[in-house]
Every structure is written in structure tokens, then in C-alpha cells.
Amino acid sequence: MTIAAIYADFAAREAHGVSPTYERLASAVARDPGLLDLLAGLPPAKRQPNLLFGVVRLLGGPVDDPAAFHDYTVASWPAIEAEMRARTTQTNEAGRCAVLLPVLNALPQPLALLEVGASAGLCLYPDRYGYRYGDHLVGSGDPVIACTAAGLTPPTTLPQVVWRAGLDLNPLDVTDPADLAWLEALIWPEHTHRRARLRAAAAVVAADPPLLVRGDLVDDLPALAAQSPPDATLVVFHSSVLYLVPTPRRTAFAEAVRELPAHWIANETPDVLPCDTLPTPPGEANHHVLALDGQPLAWTRSHGQEIIWFA
């Protein structure tokens, strides 16, 4: 896929109906030869819209007006390029816990959670947040995560988590203002509810920090998994992570996690982690597939705002 096609697809399938600002901006970049040429000088993994837009926002640049965005990006390209090369899109969306919750609840309790691509570890606390599935409330924690659910009975309880650990090439610290600023820059402009949710979830994590290990998802996974308590069900999970990983390493990761005495929950797009049989996607929007131990269960949206159960 060309860079122009990546930005056009992002506008049509990810930002449409979710962020008018980013839909407008991505469409403009897709038609902007100057910006496309600048992006072409980056490695393929560093050309993605969320990374570019997040870096520009982190540096204080404009994203509301495509013309102003073009001028700022061209004028500030050396600084933008340096940040894009140094960073990855470590979006740490606690809202994704809402689509993980039905699967976590169905596993033998208590749980030992190990998240791959954990960022700052906000998704390691599904037992501490509150949830709202339509009119159905679960838990009493803050933040309260809203999720539209279809095809399943919403959970009525929270999982029991006795151990939580994360693996990331660059773990973030919610108590570090610079790290928190990057997490906020990755939240889309109109999403004030997600910014409030990030701050509330960060307070939960800061009060009881998880074990966050700097390491590779293949090479360092077995050693971290071995630290989990033997009397708990080990659950290795990840969400919107593997698209950042080259295909050979994705394959190696899948092999590594299958060798562990653990359950494996994946929440990734179907092109990143293919499944043998899937129903027709519900519409043109970009959906993820929620899978347990390689078996697909549901369609989900990228920020955890919707789950459509089909298993």
C-alpha cells in the first residue's frame, strides 16, 4: 500500500465518524505530494498517521486546519522527523479493557496478567475500572468505561487479578510528565472523554504500579512469564500491537506464546493476525478481531468502544 493509500484508508476506515479532525487531516495528507515525499524518507513503520499527528500535537503544532498543518510540518520537519524516528504509537487505551473483560471473566480465577506491548500498563487493571455496557453497569471504579455490546450478555463481575506485568521495548511511566504528555498527544483531538479516562486510569496505575519490563516480545517473554505465580491462570494478551511488529517476528511470537502454560488473548486487525474463518465485518469501519487461544470470538473497535460477539 502506498503512503497516500495508507492515509486515505485511515481517513475512511478509522477516523470517519470517530474524529472529523483526523479524517480531514489524513485526507489532506493523502493528496499532498510535499508531505508524502517527506514521509517517504522514513522507514515504513514510521509513516503511520497516528505517529505523525501525535508528534505534531506533542510539539505544539496545529492539526485543526490542513493548510496550517502542512506549513508547520514542512517548516518543522527536522524536529518532527527526529521525534517520529525515536517514538512509536504507544497508545495506552484503558477503554480496551471493556472488550477484554468478557473473556477474562470466563477464565479460571485468579488471573496473572502479562501484557505484550504494555506501554504504561493501563490495560493491566481491568479489575479496578468500572464499565457501562448500555444500561448495564459493572464495578464501581474510576474511570467508568462505556462500551456498546451486541451478541453477548454483558459481564456481571470483575476478574480477580493477583499479578500483573507488562513487556515493552520502551515502557512508559505515568508519573513522568513527559511520558504522560506523549500518551495524551496520542489521543485524538475531539476525544475529551478519553483524555479524562487516561488521567483517571493513570492515577490507578500510579497508586499501585505494575511490573513493567523493557524487552522483546519474543526473546524476553518466557522469562517474564516464568515469574507469574503458579497458582494463578496466566493470561498473555495484547491489543493493537502486532501491526508494529515485522511479520517474521509476529510468527515467532505466536509460536512462543503457544508454548507457554498460558491462555492467549489477542485483539488485533485480521490482516495482522489472520484467522482461518471469520464472518463478514460489520461495515466499512476498521475492526479488530478478539481471539482466545487462536479462536476468533468477536469484532471490536480500536478504542474498546464496541464489541460484536459472533462465537
**CATH T-level topology of the largest domain:** Rossmann fold
Could you state the oligomeric state of the chains shown?
single chain
Biggest sheet layout: 11 strands, mixed
Strand order of the largest sheet: 3-2-4-11-10-9-8-7-1-5-6
Question: Gist?
Answer:
The chain is α/β, with parallel strands linked by helices and 311 residues long.
Present the secondary structure layout.
Blueprint: H1 3-15, H2 20-30, H3 33-40, H4 49-58, H5 66-75, H6 77-86, H7 97-106, E1 111-116, E2 130-133, E3 136-138, E4 144-150, E5 161-168, H8 177-185, H9 192-207, E6 211-214, H10 221-225, E7 233-239, H11 247-258, E8 263-268, E9 288-292, E10 295-300, E11 306-309
Parallel strand pairs: 1-5, 1-7, 2-4, 4-11, 5-6, 7-8
Antiparallel strand pairs: 2-3, 8-9, 9-10, 10-11
Folded structure, characterized:
The chain has 311 residues and is of the alpha/beta class. It has two domains: 3-86, no CATH class; 94-309, Rossmann fold. It has helices spanning 3-15, 20-30, 33-40, 49-58, 66-75, 77-86, 97-106, 177-185, 192-207, 221-225, 247-258, and strands at 111-116, 130-133, 136-138, 144-150, 161-168, 211-214, 233-239, 263-268, 288-292, 295-300, 306-309. An eleven-stranded mixed beta sheet has the order 3-2-4-11-10-9-8-7-1-5-6. The chain is globular, with a radius of gyration of 19 Å. The two termini are 31 Å apart. The model has no long low-confidence stretch (mean pLDDT 96).
